[in-house]
Amino acid sequence: MATDTRTSQRWEKGALIVGFVSLAAAILVAHGSPPEAYELSIYAGTPVAFWVGASVALLVGIFVGLRDGGVGRRLALVLSGLAMLAVASLPVLRSYYFFGAGDSLTHLAWAKDISAEKMSVLGFLYPGTHTVAVLLADATGMALHRSMLVMVTAFTAIFLLFVPLTTWTITRDRTATALAALSGLLFLPVNNISVYDMPHPTTQAILFLPLVLYLTARYLTRTDRDGRFVGTPTGALLALTSVAIVLVHPQQAANVLVVFGSILALQLLARFVGSFETRHRTLALQTIFLAGVFAVWAPRHERASGATSALVNMLANGFRVGSETTQRAGSVASVGGSIEVLFAKLFAVSLVFCALAGLLVLGGFLGRFDDRNVAAFSRYLGFALVPLGVLFAAFFVVSYEQLHFRQLGFVMVPVTILGAVALARGVDALSTRLSPRSARTAVGVAIVAMLALSTLSLYQSPYMYQSSSHVSEAQIQGYETAVGHGAGPLVGVRGNGERWTDAVLGYERSRERSLSAGSLYADETHPAVGENFTGGYVARHYGGQYLAFTDRARQQDLRVYDGFRFDRRGFRSLDSAPGLNRVQANGGFQMYRINGTS
Hints:
66% helix
């Protein structure tokens, strides 16, 4: 028996050495392979050697992390977390100029304005992430576009760290904590429809949520037993994180307020029923404090009420159920895809965890758990999921700006924790029928399969009928040159170019100059799509303007959408049509002066 134990320990040490060396090599490979041009897929653009090294590290981390306790398990969980953090930080490791070709460019613009003192932090609805990026840039000397990406990595690390710490605080169970650490690797909140691995305050607020839940769990379970008149250290930290999440994104802070209010309501109900929740510290003060901070901050900004007002108006005045989702399904089908397959790629693993979380919550309300903390927290979070689910359904019904998928991203944080605890219960149940080692191996194989699916949907790529949000330096330089030489108004292919001018000029200057003149795709009078996408058609109907687009726009339509609306022949015709003159090109950006034709 002692010999078997020593052999097992040697195997663990050897595996961990291989895992850490593989991860170090993978990181060096990634760092040594900066992109030479725009990459349509970060998966294809990253060297195979990185994926091999990261995969080895993850496999070692998962299977050693699921073995019996000890230093080996903790090191394995650290290894797996670092490996997935490396995958989620590829834009930083590979020295991308920037990552996030949509809203993120405008967030970069806001950060520029804050850094240049052209915008007041107090006059901005969600200055949290932008201020962090500005402080990072000032403290380190790095460029602001890079500090924005480092900021994203910091919030990602918070998520990976505090999902297992929250689970440990709730359960004090090593298996559940290990499974929570591995479940966090799946990044279930990121759905790439409205929650992304890029500079995007909603996403960063959602990834910040595990820290709030961790402090909430410590606060409720009276971890600080030496309470003082001014409160406990955990209570002070929880109040501070409440302020922080309001500043990162008030919409997600409102969701946290829903969670706090649900917990408090259940605690008040427990006083009549006499359940275990009465032994927890009441969340009343923290709920009132968060509500007060939200009430002071949010109403000062016009944008704060936009989503709520739109939801109420659309529910009152009529709507088309899930119209946006239906439209997207049609778009996927038109390029030869299947909405059912796409749904499975994006949400199959999430559905598994929703089912696991549902079973745990049901067990908690039925009183099936001996551990009273597990039972109480399954009821807390399960009860909070009810109003959160109602909000998800309401936003889905009105299909307003994909807010239902933001809501889903928030919901998947507590679902990840509950699902991990349910998986731990499953391991215990399997261990009674199989050996404990066989049960852990079976769960490990399942986690590997789910991790493979989740990793493929962490970044936008042709795998999900999207192009990468990689922003190359050539693209930015193209717009800088165009704007610097007074080009305008600018017409885009699918997008109107406004985000790009934001990133170049800063938000305030960009909106003052108003250089955007719409796009060929969205023009209601003369949409230049399909058979109308020719140089001659553009010259006839868009005279006196500039057609500007990046290599991302071209590759997206030709390689992802297979030329469905903008084909190769149309792009070629731009160079030969009378009335169109290419005035700028650098490999990442092209611009044509549209002189018009009679």
